Amino acid sequence: MFHRFTLFIFIILLISCNTQNRDRSNESSDQREAEDLTKEEELSMAEWKDYENSYLGLSLRYPNRWELIERTGYLDNRVVVNIFKNHQEQDSEKQPVHLHESADKTYLAIWPKGIGTEMPSGSQTKYSEIEEPQDESFLLNDERSTAFFLENGQQWGAFLSPDLQITNSNWDEFGFVFVQAATDNFSTQCVDAESGAKIPMRECDPMGGDTVLKKGNVNQNDWRVLKKIVESITFNATEKAPLTDLIKVEQPLPNMNIKSPLKIRGTARGYWFFEGDFPIVLQDAKGKTIAKGYATASDTWMTEDFVPFEATLQYSENVTPDDERGYLLFKRANPSGLSQNDRTYSLPVLFPPKER
User: Fold this and answer.
1) Contact (Cβ atoms closer than 8 angstroms) between residue 183 and residue 156
2) Using CA atoms, how far apart are residues 277 and 291, in angstroms rounded to an integer?
3) Cα 244 to the chain's mean position, in Å?
4) What angle do CA 144, 150, 156 make, to 5 degrees?
């Protein structure tokens, strides 16, 4: 009798354990399905929220489960926009965030006037070297836009500087969009520039040449979502800077008689050049090319300030037109080949009358 009772209790306990295991398995399966569904919803833009800011002249889309915070009147009346994952608790006293938040945070920061802080340390490269150029709604400044990586090659962030020609007056050359995806098991290590030995981070001097190694694993789902948000950004109230604010020709002057060899000089913004030069074309009034060449920077061109340039065009007097009018075209260097990057400054010139 005792043995039968013991066997009965054992069977009851076995059934109970199996039931609990099935319940746990179902709960785990349901949780995984919910997490997978969340990822699918975040990556599907069909139900995303729309955000538009007429003051900044931009619009974008972001996931329903994420949170957007807009700050106005910050510092010298700046407008700053942050987008966070909804579940992340943000300390209101630390907002708005910019380039230097803890590695476990996923966020996007828009600073139209920039902020005085150094760039993140660690492995980095030009953004254009890893990504295709944005369309005309969000052109990037190639020299300033930067991608950031962990030691294992995973990209964790990007600093995106809009091209000055597409932004409105409420942006300036220091404005940026910054994105960061959370990194799990994050750690840093510093390598001394001279000895190559590992040193404590408190002694690390990246500006002095020390190397910062960042380790961990980037949340790839978060990174994919951030990229989709960036791809959705458009500048609605765009305006191009006037050509007179981009290039100034000192010689020849407008409607001046010219002859070969034609000496040309002036100044242009650094981003008018590529690798230190840009094309120049001499045409007649009907658009026929008479001569072409390149203007060369006579100073450091990797700047947004004006840079002096010089050029010399040579051509045969026999090919000059009977019509005395012509045009000297100064073309902005455009290595991307995108038509929206084309800018041309046209200077009217005169050809001396041909001898009869």
Assistant:
1) yes
2) 17
3) 26
4) 60
Structure confidence by residue, pLDDT tens digits, 190-241: 888 788 888 887 888 777 777 888 899 999 999 999 999 998 888 764 456 6
Residue 81 falls in which region: left (phi positive, over 0), alpha (psi -120 to 50) or beta: beta
Q: Per the structure block, which two tokens stand in for 256?
A: 């001046």
Alpha-carbon distances, residue 129 vs 122, 151, 239 (angstroms): 17, 18, 27
DSSP letter for 255, please.
T
Where in the sequence of the chain do the CATH 2.60.40.2550 domains occur? 243-350
Distance of CA 319 to CAs 3, 252, 283, 314, 341, Å? 117, 20, 11, 11, 31
Assess whether the previous peptide bond of 252 is cis (omega < 30° from 0): yes
* CA–CA–CA angle 16, 21, 23 (5° rounding): 95
Q: What is the DSSP string of 41-83?
A: HHH-GGGPEEEEETTTTEEEEE-TTEEEEEEEEETTTEEEEEE
Spatial distance between the Cα atoms of 156 and 103, rounded to a whole number of angstroms: 9
Q: What is the mean pLDDT of residues 135-156?
A: 84
300 in Cβ contact with 308 (< 8 Å): no
CATH number of the structural domain 243-350 = 2.60.40.2550
Q: In b/e form, how buried is each residue of 124-146, taking b as 16+ CB within 10 angstroms?
A: beebbeebebbeebbbbbbebbb
pTM tops 0.70: no
Q: 202's torsion region: left (phi>0), alpha (psi -120 to 50) or beta? A: alpha
Strands 262-269 and 247-251: antiparallel
Rounded alpha-carbon distances, angstroms, from residue 170 to 60, 113, 114, 122, 166: 17, 8, 11, 31, 12
